[in-house]
Amino acid sequence: MTTARRDTYTPQTLLSVAVRVFNERGYDGTSMEHLSKAAGISKSSIYHHVAGKEELLRRAVTRALDGLFEILDEEHARAGSAAARLEYVVRRMVEVLIAELPYVTLLLRVRGNTETERWALERRREFDHRVAALLKAAAAEGDVRGDVEVRLATRLVFGMINSIVEWYRPDVRGAGEREVGDAVVRLVFGGLRQSG
Amino acid sequence: MTTARRDTYTPQTLLSVAVRVFNERGYDGTSMEHLSKAAGISKSSIYHHVAGKEELLRRAVTRALDGLFEILDEEHARAGSAAARLEYVVRRMVEVLIAELPYVTLLLRVRGNTETERWALERRREFDHRVAALLKAAAAEGDVRGDVEVRLATRLVFGMINSIVEWYRPDVRGAGEREVGDAVVRLVFGGLRQSG
DNA sequence: GTCTATATTACGATAGAC
DNA sequence: GTCTATCGTAATATAGAC
Predict the structure, then answer these.
(1) What span, in angstroms and rounded, lies between the C-alpha atoms of B164 and A56?
(2) Using CA atoms, how far apart are residues A177 and A73, in angstroms rounded to an integer?
(3) What is the pTM for the complete model shown?
């Protein structure tokens, strides 16, 4: 490790600025001029660090996808009953969403206009299928209600979890990461209704 | 009512084409050239019907918002226990989302770059608050679990419902409108867990 | 590594003929 | 109501100096 002097931009530090602007304005709504203003350097200087706008998008969604896929390799996601593994994955998804908030936000808003975007959508689908398989296993083990189709339940649960990126702000006084995780697990598995 | 001869575009028929393209490419990712190709008329002909791209967006999100707000005026949303009213509103939201799918989809993807977009976000917030008040009332009446904060629960439930626009396709063989409504109501109120 | 200047293309919108 | 032609602007990206 060399000395950590970092007065100037690197692809990595530039990325964090770009992702913030992408999320504020939308990827297509963000011009290199916008990025240039936000980063405090000229447009042409950005091209010194990255090949273009799309590379920034690719780096961002890669980071988000890596965080999500790593969950599935963790021990608690691979041992125990399917229901227990599913609960673990749901909670960890909330944690990764919050830990990598801007990157996952961008990932979830990708439309498919460019090759990079289509690749990101493809990998997202792959992750979804892995979690869907877990829910299906939990259903087969009798731990999930039988009156809601598994594929449909998966989509709705993903919808609830992924919606976190639309309102969670780490700086604002409100629900903390732990509270959100608890709430999601309780609602996903137990619903709104008063049980007692 | 005059004769219904309609060989040519009106703002209304043009809107349905535009909204489809907006949803495929994103609003910012859609140029007047894209709309022109999709509608089969020239760019300048579009300007004969509407003042510009933003008017198409405004018409679309207005239609979506009108559909949602009308729910709150319906009798079943205004009489009975708060929990019963909430369940009715949740089910009707699913119906409106599906009935007005492309318009609501566009509404839910608005970012806030233009005045029209900021207005749409403002009205969405208003709708959310009305439903949040219903959930709060249901909690006060003891029909909603006490271990999840009401504001947080509202956001997560909205997240689940709104996510429908990301995958529901009326043409594809899969869950029908009724099945989706049932699934959402069951999961929102009862959760995934096997109750019996 | 950053800048100014600029090439080139695409965009939203308008003018005016038919 | 639709068209072709075009205006002015803003976009991505490059050239070349420092």
Answers:
(1) 29
(2) 22
(3) 0.95
Q: What are the residues whose beta carbons fall under 8 Å from the beta carbon of B39, sequence distance 6 or more?
A: B9, B14, B17, B18, B46
B127 phi and psi, to 5 degrees?
-60, -45
Distance (Å) from the alpha carbon of A188 to chain B's nearest alpha carbon: 5
Within residues 30-69 of protein chain B, the ones with CB less than 7 A from nucleic strand C are 30-34, 43-44, 47, 51-54
Structure tokens that stand for A83 in this block: 């229901």
Residue nearest D5, CA–C1′ metric:
B44
Reading the block at residue B67, the tokens are 């559909």
Closest CA to A145 of A190, A185, A181, A84: A190
Written as tens digits, the pLDDT of chain B (196 aa) is 444 444 688 888 999 999 999 999 999 999 999 999 999 999 999 999 999 999 999 999 999 999 999 999 999 999 999 999 999 999 999 999 999 999 999 999 999 999 999 999 999 999 999 999 999 999 999 999 999 999 999 999 999 999 999 999 999 888 899 999 999 999 999 999 998 6
SS3 assignment, position B193: strand
Q: Is the dihedral of CA B148, B157, B189, A132 positive or negative?
A: negative
